[in-house]
Write a structure and sequence with these properties.
Blueprint lengths: L1 E6 L5 E5 L4 H10 L6 E5 L5 H12 L3 E6 L2 E5 L10 H4 L7 H10 L1 E5 L12 H9 L3 E5 L2 E5 L7 E3 L5 H11 L5 E5 L5 H12 L3 E3 L5 E5 L9 E3 L4 H13 L3 E5 L7 H9 L3 E5 L2 E5 L8 E3 L11 H9 L4 E5 L8 H8 L3 E5 L2 E5 L8 E3 L3 H13 L3 E5 L1 H5 L5 H7 L3 E6 L1
Parallel strand pairs: 2-14, 3-13, 9-10, 17-18, 21-22
Antiparallel strand pairs: 1-22, 1-23, 3-5, 4-5, 6-8, 7-8, 10-12, 11-12, 14-16, 15-16, 18-20, 19-20
This protein binds uridine-diphosphate-2(N-acetylglucosaminyl) butyric acid.
Length: 419
């Protein structure tokens, strides 16, 4: 078992380079199955979710050559099976993208029911609704999803809820379908745009990604042959922005797209922090105790649920009482119980949590209850007085590349040890 030992009381300062976006990369990798040929993907984050996606691709017949630890040449000319291994696909959430891509490529798909962070109910009814609208039959039984279609035909789909996964999955299944598919009430996150850009670079015809209505004009095949670089991870960038505020530090975040973080920048300014944007860099600094604010999570361009826990750490030490309303995942306040062990004063009830700001946190043994909770607790450990031991690191390794090294380079005293 591994744990992080964090000696706290550090003011973070310096520069950090942001990796490729996890939630784009783990959709783009299954999307390569739609290509009858070779492509090269750069700026892939070196995280365990990417490694599993690559292993699943190889099991299906893809050949992957790593050029560096962040770029790979992927040959999907010969796909041997439409059955993605159940043990691997059941372990994490983004395995659901193999349904859309295998359905598109083979007209058949079989995967395990997706696993991933325990954030409450995580239905996939909108994914299934989309596949069925294109002509597929989908059965969910015995921990498996089995989908098949004689033919996929473009259709109009209205999403009952704004869903990142369903929007991308329907896009994947529609790329090689006959005719035009319209996705109404689509999600607009930067990674939706990135997956569409990747597919278009390989020969697809997708329009409107980043708006509420996406149109996919089916094409006969994707030839590939191109190189694509994954968009920078706005959640990783946001994590370091909030670490700067929490530690009253001064961090320059490099290789990021500031427009993707407009809602966070607005909140940081509201709390009394400073933000300076220049090209692909954002400098964030703060020299006083942050002020209270209220947060409501919402689909992009609203405040991302994936930055809620990191913001929670800032609010736990802010001046005054702040309220967070979590509107995407029902169980995303588990980290507040861990933060309370460190001296925070947070009351979570259903979708709402009340943060009575305290002067400081103190180190304690705590567990990463999910990926973003893990990142939040690292920040908490860095600003706390004394030593924090953080367990359940596998959650963090799923989504953050070299996180402790990046924090160490900013001055944090943090080591990983194996017990
Ligand atoms: N929903 C449905 N039916 C569906 C799909 C979703 O009711 O068929 C609901 C969900 O229950 C949720 C809401 O719609 O309340 C939004 O879910 P969405 O489908 O957008 O989430 P997801 O695709 O499962 C992705 C990210 C999450 C991120 C959410 C929201 C991946 C692999 N995961 O999940 O990322 O929180 O979008 O932005 O892309 C993380 O990175 O830590 C993480 C959890």
């Amino acid at each position: 078992m591994e744990k992080l030992i964090i000696k706290g009381g550090t003011r973070l300062s310096g520069e950090v380079v942001i990796s490729g976006a996890k939630n784009a990369a783990i959709a783009i990798l299954p999307a390569t199955l739609l290509i009858d040929g070779v492509c090269t993907i750069e700026n892939l984050p070196n995280i365990s979710d990417v490694q599993i996606q690559c292993k699943i691709l190889e099991e299906l017949g893809a050949k992957i050559d790593w050029i560096t630890s962040n770029s790979a040449r992927i040959d999907t000319t010969n796909i041997l099976s439409y059955k993605a291994p159940l043990d691997m696909t059941s372990k994490f959430r983004a395995s659901y993208y193999f349904i859309g891509s295998l359905l598109g490529r083979c007209h058949n798909a079989e995967t395990g029911l997706p696993g991933g962070c325990k954030l409450g109910a995580r239905p996939i009814d909108q994914h299934i609704k989309g596949f069925e609208a294109l002509g597929a039959t989908v059965d969910v039984a015995n921990g498996k999803i089995v989908a098949s279609a004689n033919k996929l035909t473009g259709s109009s789909i209205y999403m009952d809820t704004v869903s990142v996964g369903a929007t991308i999955n329907v896009m994947l299944s529609a790329v090689l379908a006959e005719g035009t598919t319209t996705i109404d009430n689509a999600a607009k996150e930067p990674h939706i745009v990135d997956v569409a850009n990747f597919l278009n670079t390989m020969g697809a015809d997708i329009r409107g990604a980043g708006t509420d209505i996406i149109k996919v004009n089916g094409v006969k095949s994707l030839k590939g042959g191109a190189t694509y670089s994954v968009v920078p991870d706005q959640i990783e960038a946001g994590t370091f922005m909030l670490a700067a505020i929490a530690s009253k530090g001064d961090i320059t975040i490099k290789n990021c797209i500031s427009e993707h973080l407009d809602c966070l920048t607005a909140k940081i300014l509201e709390m009394g922090g400073n933000v300076e944007e220049s090209g692909d860099e954002i400098r964030v600094w703060c020299d006083k105790r942050p002020q209270k604010t209220n947060i409501k999570t919402a689909p992009y361009p609203g405040f991302p649920t994936d930055l809620q826990a990191q913001m929670g750490v800032v609010l736990s030490i802010a001046e005054g009482t702040s309220i967070i309303s979590e509107n995407i995942w029902e169980s995303r306040f588990q980290y507040t119980y861990e933060l309370n062990k460190m001296g925070a004063n947070i009351t979570a009830q259903g979708k709402t949590a009340f943060f009575e700001g305290v002067e400081s946190l103190s180190g304690a043994p705590v567990c990463a209850t999910d990926l973003r909770a893990g990142a939040a607790l690292i920040i908490a450990g860095i600003i706390a007085n004394g030593t924090t031991e953080l367990y359940n690191l596998e959650h963090i390794d799923r989504g953050y590349e070299n996180i402790e090294m990046k924090f160490r380079n900013l001055g944090a005293n943090i080591v990983r040890i194996r017990e």
